[in-house]
Amino acid sequence: xxxxxxxxxxxxxxxxxxxxxxxxxxxxxxxxxxxxxxxxxxxxxxxxxxxxxxxxxxxxxxxxxxxxxxxxxxxxxxxxxxxxxxxxxxxxxxxxxxxxxxxxxxxxxxxxxxxxxxxxxxxxxxxxxxxxxxxxxxxxxxxxxxxxxxxxx
Length: 153
Fold this sequence. Notes:
- The chain has 153 residues and is mainly alpha-helical.
- Helices cover 70% and strands 0% of the residues.
- It has seven helices and no strands.
- The protein has helices at 3-16, 31-50, 57-67, 70-80, 86-97, 108-126, 130-149.
- Helix 2 (31-50) crosses helix 5 (86-97) and helix 2 (31-50) crosses helix 6.
- The longest helix has 20 residues, at 31-50.
- It is globular and about 45 Å long.
- The termini are far apart.
């Protein structure tokens, strides 16, 4: 994207913020948008779970950064896949198949699975499925914690 185009899109977005808009149908939302939101939801969940365990912000930050990485989100997604409903699996599949640039910190597969995880979390959040969201977040957190404890990645 050229800088001029970026500036126009940013200007439009700032103006559009004045109106209170919502996504009409989360199931049809762009998977990158779902992943963007899902990343924020999961990051907040991880930080809230870590707060009681240390008063050292650097330790909290280091743990949270690793836990929300694509590598560990991919592990969580693999653990969740067998229990997803068909609707949830479809959202995750759309997230996984979305085209985006892959950073060097993860393999293509890990990054795609991480995006699938984030899209699923964003979708559940937008659909206000609080109980299901909490259950999947808790299972993901535990899966990631165990993987980190066992030195897997």
